[in-house]
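Progress against Task 2.4 (sequence-to-structure conversion) is shown through the following example record, which the project officer requested during the mid-term review.
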Amino acid sequence: MTDPYEPAPGTFSNPAAGQPYQQPQFASSAQQAHAGYAGAAAGGAYDGPPPGTDVGNDISKSFSWAWQAFAKNWVALVVPGLIWGALYVILFIALCIGYFASIFALVNAFESSEPTGWEAPAIIIVILAVYAIIALIQLPLAAWMSGAARSAGLVAQGQTPTIGNGIIHWKTFFTYILYVLLSFFSVIIPLIGPIACMFFFSLAPYLAANRACGPISAFKDAANRALAKPAHVILMWLVTGALGFAFAITIIGMLFLPVLIAFTSLFYSSMISRIEGTRPAPVV
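Structure tokens generated for the chain above:
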């Protein structure tokens, strides 16, 4: 039985005043470290170096986050890609059939008639028509990319995307079209032009999707972020380019193109957040 006049364990008496004092309690460094780790596991602030300061850590964390986010939302991310991919394949097959049919018709016309001077204009018209159709069939691809970027942006903001979100996002769509046009005209300056266009403006479609801003603002923000974090932008492009090449060299890999585009969009969204010094929303 405890003596009621004895001070409680962990206290000592002041001989002068006769008042008990509580002994200070100190947690060991191991306990503090464990508590910090537990907080990180529960979604705390600890995540290695601060975002935007270590490009290797940002690439690694973005890959991990993109995979978790894809596994959680794969239906909403992949189904729009299957829809647009099927339409793109149909248009591409129609283009090939029309192209070879036109060439075959021209060859037969040349062989069965005397030269009249219309052959050269006919060839030019066919070539221009082919280029026009090639440009038009890029529109489904642009819509596909815009929807994928928008869905990835919603996931990065902590929202759950729907299939409808992945069909098309108009601001991102026009931003992507403008980026393709800039890339096309950048070849005027060999090698340097395309590289500069990629470096300064490759983030623009994803910024338009993540921030819901217009094309001009997206291109301006993309250039600012590229100048602020050049290593991040270059490595992002190299990593996703290598991943795309690995998929492209095999027919089986091309069948998983909707998965690749969705994953790439998630990866870019996470990297944009880290470039800005933040992190994407946790995947729950």
